[in-house]
Amino acid sequence: MNRSLKFTLAVAVIATIAAALGAGYWFGRQQPAAASTMAMADAASGDTAASPSPAGKNERKLLYYRNPMGLPDTSPEPKKDSMGMDYIAVYEDDAPDDSGAVKVSPARIQTLGVKTARAEERTLDAALRTVGRVEVDERRIHDVAPRFEGWIERLQVSATGDPVSKGQALFSVYSPELVSAQKELRIAETLEQSAGNADPVAREGARRLAEAARERLRNWKVAGAAGSQNALVTFSSPATGVVLEKKAIEGMRFMAGTVIYRIADLSTVWVIADVYEQDLARVKLGESAQVIIDAFPGHPFEAKVTYLYPTLNAATRTTPVRLELKNHDGMLRSGMFAHVEIATAGKAARLTVPPSAVIDTGDRQVVLLVLGEGKYKPQAVKIGLRGREAVEILEGIQVGDEVVTAANFLIDAESNLKAALSTFTAPQSAESAKAVAKLYQAQGSIDSLDIASNTASVT
């Protein structure tokens, strides 16, 4: 009996000790979690209801907490989203204002490498750049073509490309038709002289016959042929220049109107530039231009726009524009490739900003105005001519306005992001934020719990 009692007491003592150990282990597991929960509550309480302090005037005013993933969800107090990420605090000086301005901290400005410049009036170098080709001035081309048939007896200029002077002999020809006309003229002149004492009718007939022979030779443009006894007629160069074409060969027969020589005066040449259809309105007659030839890269030629052709190439959508320039040294040759810059802006001062200051969104152009204290505002502008170092601004800003020229794309992207988020997340005031995030309480029982999907079914 004693032995049974002792065994029962031993079992009871062991059970009591085991229960005490289990309770202690469970209590120890729960204390850190409770302490952590209380600490988070204290922190949240400190964020939302900070006690007044002497430095309260310098504290940033908290508006609300927004979802870290950009979802339309706000909270008046700190919380975590379904993935355990902390909500982001939004302060009054961080939120975009009604004008669309965005504030960037000094540290971020330095990190982004923000650079600025002021809008100023200046002469714009808005040269229209295109390409062209050198061509001979059509008004300075001269053809040498006899008006009668004959044979070439002798050549005084025998090669294409030879330089010639005005009045220089080119070739001599023999023409039976010309010889007959010369004989007829001599006979008519003899009759005219012998009819001096004859009756007036005979004298008038001789005079008319001689005049008809002279007119025939004049129509053939044979200089000195009227009194010449030589059967050969020499043709001379009509202008100073070079021989572009020479079809003459000694002994060759030619017909009336055959071009024997083509002479061109190259002291002035043309450059035919191809201007795109959308740029035609910028080109005006009389505008100056600069021509660069690949063969002479360090020798720019000054030119002037003299004609805009009334045709357009349907395949390339370009219109030929004629430029005229001097060629005193004979450096320019027909067919040379030319780079052309036409000064289309003139010398008037225009409101300009650096090209890097303009952000082209596709349907509009924007610059970032510097408002001071780290604030930047996107401002739509209307641009005009584009130059090498500046862009003309027609509307949107004024002289002296400061604009961002570097890192403007990053600031504009941040501004657009904040503006987009504000349409979803920014309430009108802190009170409205609390109203949106109002909590509701109820009692119920949990039917099921799904840890994997982080959901619960409550009734």
From TrEMBL:
<dbReference type="Pfam" id="PF25919">
    <property type="entry name" value="BSH_CusB"/>
</dbReference>
<feature type="domain" description="CusB-like barrel-sandwich hybrid">
    <location>
        <begin position="144"/>
        <end position="264"/>
    </location>
</feature>
<dbReference type="GO" id="GO:0030288">
    <property type="term" value="C:outer membrane-bounded periplasmic space"/>
</dbReference>
<dbReference type="InterPro" id="IPR058790">
    <property type="entry name" value="BSH_CusB"/>
</dbReference>
<dbReference type="GO" id="GO:0016020">
    <property type="term" value="C:membrane"/>
</dbReference>
<dbReference type="Pfam" id="PF25954">
    <property type="entry name" value="Beta-barrel_RND_2"/>
</dbReference>
<protein>
    <submittedName>
        <fullName>Efflux RND transporter periplasmic adaptor subunit</fullName>
    </submittedName>
</protein>
<dbReference type="GO" id="GO:0046914">
    <property type="term" value="F:transition metal ion binding"/>
</dbReference>
<keyword id="KW-0813">Transport</keyword>
<dbReference type="GO" id="GO:0015679">
    <property type="term" value="P:plasma membrane copper ion transport"/>
</dbReference>
<comment type="similarity">
    <text>Belongs to the membrane fusion protein (MFP) (TC 8.A.1) family.</text>
</comment>
<feature type="domain" description="CusB-like beta-barrel">
    <location>
        <begin position="268"/>
        <end position="345"/>
    </location>
</feature>
<feature type="domain" description="CzcB-like C-terminal circularly permuted SH3-like">
    <location>
        <begin position="351"/>
        <end position="411"/>
    </location>
</feature>
<dbReference type="InterPro" id="IPR006143">
    <property type="entry name" value="RND_pump_MFP"/>
</dbReference>
<dbReference type="Pfam" id="PF25975">
    <property type="entry name" value="CzcB_C"/>
</dbReference>
<dbReference type="GO" id="GO:0022857">
    <property type="term" value="F:transmembrane transporter activity"/>
</dbReference>
<dbReference type="InterPro" id="IPR058649">
    <property type="entry name" value="CzcB_C"/>
</dbReference>
<dbReference type="GO" id="GO:0060003">
    <property type="term" value="P:copper ion export"/>
</dbReference>
<dbReference type="InterPro" id="IPR051909">
    <property type="entry name" value="MFP_Cation_Efflux"/>
</dbReference>
<dbReference type="InterPro" id="IPR058792">
    <property type="entry name" value="Beta-barrel_RND_2"/>
</dbReference>
